[in-house]
């Protein structure tokens, strides 16, 4: 009589051992890829696995030290934002090349939620965590007791000693964009941005200051806005600016701000020269096409995964910070 | 006297059930985010959870056999497409509400890659798989030996008996859009679409035929294109149509086709009335704003997760197909 598993549960390694008439240890060695197994036994195990539909339980396996879950955990702001979606896409595609799955969790820029998803990723024993620090900071990374998987910060630095970091050149990219607006004759360039507590915002603001300093133009602090957290807030802010007539150009410090500004142009029926930070698919389709500082999101995702993989391979060198260059795409919207 | 849990252990679901004076199953359903619970009971459970400080212990749950890994697996086409990103976003947000993580994998519309990611998700023992069948079909779902976690097909039907399915009303949405173009006087409406082997394309094509039939207008089959797999291909196709002058309006059968058509309008310097299928953030920002058939992606993601959770709770009723309505958003681009 053939002994099969009960129908109401998944077949276990024990079932495979019974069916193949070999010891549990041998099945375990086979399943874990050992090759020094008697070929006849290996063949019996292979058949038993196929007949029973046995599948290795990686969720269980991953709690054994030294094993791998085969999963990268990625914590981003929010999948609805095309910038994060592009980053996720890039990480996912590199992960797939190396046979890894990707678990994505959104922090919604909230510290408590960020900590919850990190906790859950650690429970899942992911192989590495690629983390975007949220706007409102939660616990310090030192809160989690070691051992931690490799952690790589992307887009913004994080607070874990020894972790690698991949950033874009926010300062240089913004400096070039604002310089282009100044070169076009603008003298009252509004900075439409988010909270400067965000690393990226602070760097972009510095780039804005740098360009002004290089051109000998004094910045009017009443043209610097840190309150554009969403495209809706940017709409209101830019609409007010247009009505007041105080600005002669806009630097939109992220894609939300740029979309909001374009919506305000449409609502108010007038426009200003504008350059945005972050490229997105629709940017060239507007009238005029939107000029942007483009980050190489593909390269950032790739660099982050590679950094984590290097650490998994035992690289225990000092933490590295990579700053990837940006590209200024001038398409027309920078002109009056 | 209020009966509380002993101080030396975490409160369990049993403690919550005892405190709220409801059955364990009801607490479990509440904790798993089910909404069809007697409101008075739900309120008692909510209070009990708060008073006891009960927290669902997913870490323990995931290592007990037959229990949950706390992860939803989602197989989509490609995160770079805003439609899939929006779907992923919706599933992720419902997952988070119920304490679940989300593992996302792209099939790139390729059957072999699809099968690889499904295999990996099964190894990870995900709690459910929400699956978008790829354009080129791989193995049949019957290839994988049971037991499988609940599988829910979304956007397109799949080939697993008993699996639930969540679709948009592609046929009705397209019929209404094409009817609006016909009502505006168009008589030679090009269908710019992808391969009709895709369920969604076939349904949209049927909607296009239906609207013509209802208006007593004969379709010119040389205006029906199934070769627009990417926005680049749509650009070429629409640019040729514009130069030939054979069409007097366009139905862009997905967001790639719509973006390609707008790019072609810009390149050629002329435009046609157009309505697209799928809304996206930039659609209202074009000049004129793009009219679209909008799917309720949020509701689709929610319905898919809920269907899977119901199955996890033991619902073994016959497979359900939910077809969610679409909305025609007329913004101006449908006019000459």
UniProtKB/TrEMBL annotation, chains A, B:
Keywords: DNA-binding, Transcription, Transcription regulation
Gene3D superfamilies xrefs: 3.40.50.2300, lambda repressor-like DNA-binding domains
Classification via CDD domains: HTH_LacI, PBP1_LacI_sugar_binding-like
Lineage: Bacteria, Bacillati, Actinomycetota, Actinomycetes, Nakamurellales
UniProt keyword annotation of Transcription present: yes
A molecular function (GO) term: DNA-binding transcription factor activity
Residue span, HTH cro/C1-type domain: 12-55
A Pfam short name: Peripla_BP_3
Domain HTH lacI-type as annotated: residue spans: 11-65
Protein name (database record): LacI family transcriptional regulator
InterPro entries cross-referenced by the UniProt entry: Cro/C1-type_HTH, HTH_LacI, LacI/GalR-like_sensor, Lambda_DNA-bd_dom_sf, Peripla_BP_I
């Amino acid at each position: 009589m053939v002994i099969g598993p009960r129908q109401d549960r998944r077949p276990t390694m024990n079932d495979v051992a019974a069916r193949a008439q070999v010891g549990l240890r041998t099945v375990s060695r086979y399943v874990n890829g050992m090759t020094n197994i008697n070929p006849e036994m290996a063949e019996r195990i292979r058949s038993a696995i196929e007949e029973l539909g046995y599948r290795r339980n990686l969720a269980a396996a991953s709690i054994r030290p030294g094993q791998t879950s085969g999963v990268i955990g990625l914590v981003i702001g929010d999948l609805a934002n095309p910038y994060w979606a592009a980053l996720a896409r890039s990480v996912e595609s590199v992960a797939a090349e190396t046979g890894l799955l990707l678990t994505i969790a959104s922090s919604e820029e909230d510290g408590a939620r960020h900590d919850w998803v990190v906790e859950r990723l650690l429970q899942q024993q992911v192989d590495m965590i690629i983390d975007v620090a949220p706007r409102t900071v939660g616990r310090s990374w030192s809160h989690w007791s070691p051992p931690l998987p490799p952690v790589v910060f992307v887009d913004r630095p994080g607070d874990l000693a020894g972790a690698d970091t991949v950033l874009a050149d926010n300062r240089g990219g913004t400096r070039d964009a604002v310089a282009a607006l100044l070169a076009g004759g603008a003298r009252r360039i509004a900075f439409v941005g988010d909270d400067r507590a965000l690393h990226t915002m602070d760097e972009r603001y510095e780039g804005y200051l740098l360009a002004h300093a290089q051109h000998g133009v004094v910045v009017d602090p009443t043209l610097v806005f840190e309150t554009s957290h969403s495209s809706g807030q940017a709409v209101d802010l830019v609409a007010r600016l247009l009505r007041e007539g105080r600005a002669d150009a806009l630097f939109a410090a992220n894609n939300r701000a740029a979309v909001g500004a374009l919506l305000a142009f449409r609502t108010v029926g007038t426009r200003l020269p504008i350059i945005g930070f972050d490229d997105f698919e629709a940017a060239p389709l507007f009238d005029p096409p939107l000029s942007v500082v483009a980050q190489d999101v593909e390269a950032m995702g790739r660099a982050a995964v590679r950094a984590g993989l290097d650490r998994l391979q035992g690289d225990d060198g000092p933490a590295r910070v990579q700053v990837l260059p940006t590209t200024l795409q001038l398409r027309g919207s920078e002109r009056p």
